[in-house]
Design a protein that fits this description.
single chain; three-stranded parallel β-sheet
Amino acid sequence: VAQAVLNDLKPEHKVFVCEIGAVHKGKIAQTAGIIKPRVGILTGINQQHMAVFGGQKNIIDAKYEILEVLPASGTAILNWSSPMEKESIDSKKVAVKAQNIILAGKDIVAADIKAERDVLQFDLLLEGKKHTVRTNARGTFMVEPILLAVCGAMAAGMGPERIIEIINGTEFAPFNIAVSKNSGGVNVISSTYSANPDGVFAHLDYLKLWPGKKAIVMPCIIELGGASKEIHFAIGKRI
């Protein structure tokens, strides 16, 4: 992040989109102190990195740092599809100074979701108008990040029509889930970024869209702490 700020940002740039990850409390606040964001998106919270954070509460506290550093004139965006965000917002929002709070999945919703192997389509209601989103994003779980991106774009001043135009024109594959066919006619699906429980479950749901015999190859998920056994059992059950 520091290298991007020092070397890559130019006077002609209007927007800087920065992903901030963390494996201990205080890191997000520290990095946000460098970039001083006016829009913060809390994408999701689950058990990922629990072993290094030392507990679920520490993860929640750390993730909310991105919203707590925002100025009063800023915009805080939460993922209403994340159960831990819904459960924690009432106790955490007292520390959020931003006056504008958007709940993706509640204030801006997706309806009539249709997912096929290579197509994702749904209706999006923005500023009183219904827009149809049709992309090659793979899996219903992609609705969540798209909604968060829509909220962020609107907070940055982009209009609804332009937002929908960009989404429908974006090439999601193979960056979302890569699919290739080898010489033996076997489809190989690569979803190597599902390194957390929600990601694994989401990609398993996508796999349901494929007919025929399936083989799943995956390692264990690391850094889950005391929740590891329960989560891996649930993954095995879902498979």
